[in-house]
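Render this sequence as a predicted structure.
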Amino acid sequence: MRASDRAYNALREDIIEWRLRPGTVLAEVEQSERLGVSRTPVREALARLTAEGLTAPGGRGVVVTDISLDSIDELFELRETLEVRAAALAAQRGEPGVFAELHAQLLRAPALLSDDDPARHEYYALVSRLDDAIDTAISNSYLANAMRSLRVHLVRVRRLAADDSTRLQAAAAEHAAIAEAIAAGNPRLAEAATTVHLHRSLTHVKDNHTPA
């Protein structure tokens, strides 16, 4: 792996996981020493992160971008536009058996949603498999790439809200409904199930938003 790719992956993960918090100045010299690479790969990595909206030019250099309530609204407006359409396309083009299996697994997901972090990671991995299955089913690389880019920011947003078991169990049921509708080949039901999930997710995030 190239040094710039290593630097990019490390910085991106640190930002998404809030180890580098909004407003943190990412000086090239400091980051190159921390990551064990030269300044040029760090500069390239920061350029990629800025293109993704995770960093931005600041008064003293490149800084980690903030997430405000206004930006959360904007993200969910885009999310609804992309994901509702993707769910409908997946219902039309996807392999029913794939989504039927995901539906069955999501119905069992509440058993994973304890206060045990490793168990929660299993649930998030299952949701990622649903996302990947939808990306594959839609057979539209432009739409799939747009959704993958958006999900980077959504992971950051999730960290702002209380990650409680009650909401996660409700989300598991909502994801199960999406998978079930896609497995049934019902585009309108898939759209409706996705819309409900996004509405409830946004409400939860805003009600439990913790300023950065």
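Summary. The chain has nine helices and three strands. The mean pLDDT is 89.
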